[in-house]
């Protein structure tokens, strides 16, 4: 029995992904991001983002606000987390370091912000905070050009995102064949497959008094159709019974 317990302890220590996590993730992120702000970018970069269906405005979700949402979502090793418009990547790193998600991915069009995110990812790798078999990834590309096919959780902090960008994100997520959770600071337009689950009220870098943050679940069309089908069947059944009674 003692030997079993010993092996169990050693095995769980080896397999525990949280071992790669810094002792105090909030302090660690503060340290690696010291003097690295993503607020100022060149006019050239701003215009590039505007011309490419995006918006360059910047703001961040603070660590404690993000921690509240991430704890509530109870993410597992099956989850793939996306921050759509990830800025300097703090949230992507936080999701990676404090949850057991399989992949944490940040998509950002600004090269300046992407470069900061990438340098912090490299720092985390140097500090041995990257777990084998789990990905921490930053892509310097347009959200519109990003396949979201493996996404299970998406964060959209796009208060100023153009409507066509929001629509394109919603179209792609609703076409997936699995459930997705979406956290959005902007209330999303009505959509049959998007169901509002709850509204958090949390401080943001631009609003210490807090803003509403919506949590949606997105279900595949097939799931919606299955829910609709029994009604049609019942109607047919009723018609048949009525006909039989007439006969
Ligand atoms: C409000 S910031 C959010 C930063 C981060 N998600 C956070 O909450 O801490 C939005 C970011 O989205 C980026 N962005 C805007 N349009 C984009 C697009 N079409 N593709 C990729 N990034 C975009 C902006 O450059 C900006 O850095």
List keywords for this structure.
247 residues, alpha/beta, Rossmann fold, 7-stranded mixed β-sheet, 8 helices, 7 strands, globular, binds S-adenosylmethionine
Bound molecules: S-adenosylmethionine
Largest sheet: 7 strands, mixed
Q: How many strand units?
A: 7
Helix tally equals 8
Please tell me the CATH architecture by its name.
3-Layer(aba) Sandwich
How much helix, percentage-wise, in residues?
40-55%
Overall number of domains: 1
* CATH level-four homologous superfamily name: Vaccinia Virus protein VP39
Predict the CATH topology.
Rossmann fold
Strand order of the largest sheet: 3-2-1-4-5-7-6
Amino-to-carboxy terminus distance? 75 Å
Portion of residues in beta strands equals 15-25%
The helix/strand order is: HHHHEHEHEEHEEEH
Form type: globular
Low-confidence stretches: 8-19
Structural class: alpha/beta
Descriptive overview:
- With 247 residues, the protein is α/β, with parallel strands linked by helices.
- The chain has a single domain (20-246), classed as 3-Layer(aba) Sandwich (Rossmann fold).
- Helices cover 43% and strands 19% of the residues.
- It has eight helices and seven strands.
- The chain has helices at residues 2-15, 25-32, 43-51, 63-73, 90-98, 111-126, 163-174, 221-246; strands spanning 80-84, 103-107, 135-139, 153-156, 180-184, 194-204, 207-218.
- The chain has a seven-stranded mixed sheet with strand order 3-2-1-4-5-7-6, with helices on one face.
- The site of S-adenosylmethionine has 27 residues, from α5.
- S-adenosylmethionine (SAM) binds next to α5.
């Amino acid at each position: 029995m003692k030997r079993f317990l010993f092996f169990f302890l050693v095995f769980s220590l080896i397999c525990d992904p949280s071992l790669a996590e810094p002792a105090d993730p909030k302090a660690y992120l503060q340290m690696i991001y010291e003097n690295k702000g993503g607020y100022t970018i060149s006019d050239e970069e701003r215009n590039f983002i505007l011309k490419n269906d995006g918006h360059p405005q910047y703001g961040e979700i603070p660590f404690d606000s993000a921690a509240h949402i991430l704890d509530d979502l109870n993410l597992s090793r099956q989850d793939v987390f996306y921050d759509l418009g990830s800025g300097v990547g703090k949230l992507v790193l936080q999701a990676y370091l404090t949850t057991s998600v399989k992949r944490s991915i940040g998509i950002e069009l600004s090269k300046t912000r992407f470069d900061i995110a990438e340098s912090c990812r490299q720092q985390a790798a140097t500090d041995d905070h990257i777990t084998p078999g789990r990905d921490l990834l930053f892509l310097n590309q347009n959200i519109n050009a990003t396949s979201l096919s493996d996404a299970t959780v998406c964060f959209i902090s796009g208060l100023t995102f153009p409507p066509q960008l929001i629509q394109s994100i919603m179209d792609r997520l609703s076409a997936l064949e699995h459930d997705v959770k979406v956290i959005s600071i902007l209330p999303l337009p009505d959509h049959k497959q998007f169901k509002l689950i709850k509204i958090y009220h949390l401080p943001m870098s631009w609003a210490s008094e807090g803003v509403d943050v919506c949590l949606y679940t997105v279900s595949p069309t097939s799931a919606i159709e299955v829910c609709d089908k029994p009604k049609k069947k019942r109607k047919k059944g009723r018609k048949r019974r009525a006909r039989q009674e007439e006969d």
